[in-house]
Amino acid sequence: MKHLHISYLLLLGNLSFSQNAHISEITAKLHPVPIRFDAIIEENTNRVALSIINATDTIVLTGQKIIKNEYLFEFPVFNTYIRLKKENKHWTGHWTDQDKKESHTLTLRPKSKNQIRYPLPDSRQQQARYLIYFNRGTNNERPAILEFFPHSSGQVKGSVLTTAGDYRFLQGSANGDSVILSTFDGKFAYVFAAQLMGDSLYGIQYSPGGPPREFSGIRDDNAQLPDPESLTKIAKEETTVRFTLPDTDGRNVEFIGDQQSHKVTLITIGGSWCPNCMDEARFLNQIYNEYRSRGLHVIGVYFEYTDQMNIAIPLLRRMKEQLKLDFPILYGGSVRRQAAAKVFPQIEKILAYPTLIAIDSKGQIIKTYTGFYGPGTSLFREYEAAMKNWLDNLLSD
């Protein structure tokens, strides 16, 4: 593994100028592979907009002019921003995470017509699925699935699925010897670079602010992870779910499970800093509006990077507004697991954000689901169909 050679993946090739399309890079110290994403900058007299593109996902940011040729782009949901300065036709600056108090260098270079983010010799569209393990052979070994599929750009798109969720929309290149996929959503940035040897795969994951993580695995088109409904355990001394927490207006909301008029309540345990939680919230909003007339209720209990309510509430309010959520979002406290355990003593341990629990009209937990496989994965439509089928049966009478 230590002899994995990936230096040739860094080649950008010759660049030429083309409208507003850019190849963008986030660089971090000690990481040999830059994290790249596609971007489009639109400039006119009244507005500068930055579109961040990964596979089928696009995030649009509107710039606020700070000084001449320098703009601030705030992400709509996360507590992060990009600050860019234009020099000639290049943009340089920083991506800053205010929760983690981290900042990383960001460069946008003009993109030639057919340029791709990671050019590989003889790269081609292909489809594959690998069962992989991070930190293999250690006490911290973790299973995952790496999958990729042909993308309309001539590259490949895919995701990495874990027992805690997924890495969302990845895009990159593959050939018979290598695969490299990257993503940037404003909160997290990742690149997965691997060599293929027959049916085996050996690679490294890079992320700014964190150490490299090795992974290895074998091709398995039928690879499965542990059932998400089996991971979160209910405490033996389970009691009725009840809590009183502030909503996005700062008003306390009391929930007493066995005093609800709803047939089923779905409670998602997450955070505004969590991209998987954002994907799940959009999905739950759709489910809520489709089934609320039949007795379904949905509540989000979110845990933030701060234990100060005057900071957390505005973040949650902004998230709720930006995602256009119709169900209530409550502030559960700090993201530390102890805070979640205090609100939900019925659960032995919160393993992942998000975690979904379903509660019947008696206030008892009837179902749990750890993590969320979102629209960047091959499992999203399957999960959507299973959830609707379950609700149809449960709310049929």
TrEMBL record:
UniProt lineage:
Bacteria, Pseudomonadati, Bacteroidota, Flavobacteriia, Flavobacteriales
User: Domain Thioredoxin: where?
Assistant: 234-396
The positions making up the signal sequence are 1-21
What are the entry keywords?
Answer: Signal
Write down the species. Schleiferia thermophila
Keyword Transport set for record: no
Q: Give the top-rank taxon of the lineage listed in the UniProt record for this protein.
A: Bacteria
Is Amino-acid biosynthesis there in the keyword field? no
Matching PANTHER family, A to Z? THIOL:DISULFIDE INTERCHANGE PROTEIN DSBE, THIOREDOXIN-LIKE PROTEIN HI_1115
What is the name listed in the Swiss-Prot or TrEMBL entry for this protein?
A: Peroxiredoxin
Q: Which InterPro entries match?
A: Redoxin, Thioredoxin-like_sf, Thioredoxin_domain, Thioredoxin_ResA/DsbE_sf
Q: Name one GO molecular function term.
A: oxidoreductase activity
Query: Entry's Pfam families?
Result: Redoxin
